[in-house]
């Protein structure tokens, strides 16, 4: 971003705002949320098999997979 003419001496937050971009922290959080959603929707069946464990119990009144 510093290579863009006119933004060399502008603060990081102001550069992001002028270019319409999100901060690196927000982009990383968005990536984590997308990955979590895909794991929950079983998009990663092979790589995420051990991520969540399934406990079968008779204490859940009708649904043994909770």
Average pLDDT for all residues = 76
Rg over CA atoms, rounded to whole Å, is 21 Å
How many β strands by DSSP? 0
> Largest sheet at a glance?
none
Name the shape in a single word.
rod-shaped
Task: Quote the beta fraction.
Answer: under 5%
- Unreliable residue runs: none
Going by helix content, strand content and strand pairing, the class is mainly alpha
Question: How many helix segments?
Answer: 2
- In whole angstroms, how far apart are the ends? 48 Å
State the order of secondary-structure elements, H for helix, E for strand: HH
Helix content: 25-40%
What does this structure look like?
The structure is a single chain. The chain has 66 residues and is an all-alpha fold. The protein has a domain at 24-66. The chain has helices at 12-19, 24-40. The longest helix is centred in the middle third of the chain and has 17 residues, at 24-40. It is rod-shaped, with a radius of gyration of 21 Å. 0% of the residues are buried. The mean pLDDT is 76.
What are the salient characteristics of this protein?
mainly alpha; 66 residues; single chain
In short:
By secondary structure, this protein is an all-alpha fold. The protein has helices at residues 12-19, 24-40.
Write the layout of secondary structure elements.
Layout: H1 12-19, H2 24-40
